[in-house]
Amino acid sequence: MNSKQRLRARIVLIALLLAAAGLGSSLYWTQVVKGSTYIAKADKQYDKPPVSLFDRGSIFFESKDGTRAAAATVSSGFLLHMNPKLLSDAPNAYEALSHYLTLDKEEFIRKAERTDDPYEEIVHHVDQKTADSIKGLGIKGIQLSKESWRSYPANEVAAHVLGLTGQNSESAIEGRYGLERTYEDILVRTSRGSNASAFAELFSGIRESVFGNTALEGSIVTTIEPTVEKYIEKTLQTTADVLKPDEIGAIVIDPNTGEIVAMASLPTYDPNDVSKVKNPALFSNPLVEHVYEMGSIIKPLTMAIGLDSGAITAKSTYDDTGTMTLNTKKISNFDGQARGVINVQEVLSQSLNVGAATIALKVGKENFVKYMAGFGLSGKTGIDQPNEASGLLRNLENGQDIEVATAAYGQGIAISPISITRSLSVLANGGMIIQPHLVKEIEYSDGTTKKTEVDNTTRILRKETTDEVTRMLVNVVDTALLKGEIKMERYSVAAKTGTAQIPDPGNKGYYTDRYLHSFFGYFPAYKPTFLVFIYQIHPKGAQYASETLTKPFSEISKFLIDYYSIPPDR
């Protein structure tokens, strides 16, 4: 190639590069800088101020067989709006639209009269079929725009776990409660125009890489098993219909892994429509964010501390005097009656406060507090929910015998439901503290996945200790709880009830007629698949938890055994 040919080739190459640069610049200007403007002009049936369509990662439930169902997703449809300047006959327009939508006539006419405003919203979330019918009416001034929104296909199911999205101070949609908030950095999406082109997406990706947006977007798969969750919620509702508690809730957990297959609380809400919720506090998850004095379900922990520390053995006896005075304050059994010299098994079988206090005092304050801290009762579990509350054990740590004694049977200390569930799981799994969690897997948009990894390797109690406490709790179910009424011939079940007085903040004491009822149990007792915790606040018509929660627990345990085909152990 001679010099003239090389020069000619260079000129052609430079011309091509300039043309490409010009074309790229033009495309950038048209599709990125002015894209939304041209889209709005081109797509006349979506004639409204141009906005980006909402997008967000999904949240899934996963059934026991691995089948997934959307728990939170993005739905698409249309927004119906009007331009009052163009609407010539509002009454007739209302009548025509009423064949397809439920509209408030007075509000519709009122908006139609705002002729100085070219844009008035009428109805959100219009489906495709209805939108096609409305478009066919050809009403001048009535317009449709594409829109997308967060939706929860199962409505109220696991609402407190899933949470909500909402607008922040900059009008951007973000997670506000539950998993939506905890995994915001995974679920959030960069806004995209409703008709963004591949070229525009390319420049968007370049901008993200240049400016350091390296967060991995994705979707999450929960540990919630939808059939179990629905059954738990139905059982809670049936119980609430009879007893009218101020609040009722339950947790079903695998005590070996920390996976939560169900978590529910009533009253609840439908995250698809929160217009009827008057108090925003309803959106919070009380199983994680609230603390309560739990009562006698603490006694098995106290028994375990006594056994593990060597302060007592399973064959130990004590003189139950019915009452005890410590630091000038009197405590007593639930009925105030003395039992005399009895075996420590009766502390659990008869739920004796004096017996639990005796064991704790024999262990000693310093050692007792150390064990309670080991159960994690004063801290947080680290569950993947926002605003987790820490336990309130300050009374236990102030040094007085009376505080140690009352803490031994679950009064004077306040603990969240998820915290007590984790602590009781130590008894069920052979002595290990677990990490409760609600997400089992993250699926990133780049095709990679990440399994939830938790540390369940910290030992709190000796295996021999938990075996002994389990044996004692099985004895409670077989012989003492409702006189053995819920004993299962082919399955061993370890369980304990709790009835706690509710603090009266006005009088710096306790209400005399209000109680918190709690119940926990695990099965099969010596190699458990599940632990179930239930509580309710101020149920009406019954004083003791054995009267109100034994039946719901029995129904839940039988359902789980059947649903998961759990083999018998005796």
Which terms summarize this structure?
alpha+beta, 570 residues, 36% helix, 20 helices, Penicillin-binding protein 2a (Domain 2), five-stranded antiparallel β-sheet, seven-stranded mixed β-sheet, Beta-lactamase
Task: Summarize the structure in words.
This protein folds into 2 domains: 170 residues, Penicillin-binding protein 2a (Domain 2) (Alpha-Beta Complex), CATH 3.90.1310; 338 residues, Beta-lactamase. Helix content is 36%, strand content 22%. It has 20 helices and 22 strands. The protein is elongated. The N and C termini lie far apart (94 Å).
In terms of structural class, how would the helical and strand content be classed?
alpha+beta
Low-pLDDT residue spans: 36-47, 192-214
Q: Could you tell me the CATH topology label of the largest domain.
A: Beta-lactamase
Percent helix, as a range, is: 25-40%
Instruction: Tell me what portion of residues adopts beta-strand conformation.
Output: 15-25%
Per DSSP, the total helix count is 20
Separation, N- and C-terminal Cα atoms: 94 Å
Cα gyration radius (Å): 31 Å
Biggest β-sheet description? 7 strands, mixed
Instruction: Write the CATH homologous superfamily of the largest domain.
Output: DD-peptidase/beta-lactamase superfamily
Count the domains. Answer: 2
Number-wise, the strands total 22
CATH architecture of the largest domain: 3-Layer(aba) Sandwich
Which CATH class of the largest domain is shown?
Answer: Alpha Beta
Note the overall shape. elongated
Mean pLDDT: 89
